[in-house]
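Methods — Computational structure assignment.
A single polypeptide chain was analysed. Its primary sequence is given first, followed by the predicted tertiary structure written as structure tokens.
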Amino acid sequence: MSRTIVTRNKDVDFYTNLNSEQLIGQLCKESGAKYHNNNHGYDFENISFPYKMTNEESIDTATKLRTLLDKTEEIFPKYKHFFDKKSTSEDLKEFIIYYSDIFEKCGGYECLG
């Protein structure tokens, strides 16, 4: 499952699935960036990345996500359930770098559904 995302920079493709959307949201929360909590009134948090961001919010998110790069070994145990069993903190680092670059270049985005 994924959402259709339209970026303001037509040269940037933003691909996600439910798993990566939830991981991005958790990492955004961890770093202090904008995230979405869609708990529908339940007691648990259902965190995902926001449905839209302005260019400024996207750049802020990229910057804040990059602050986690020096902590990937420390925080990986908290997020390892999002990855394959053979994954390491390096995989989390690559994930953060990949999506930080997309956030920085996208010019903002909007999810259409």
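Note: Helices lie at 18-31, 55-66, 72-79, 89-106.
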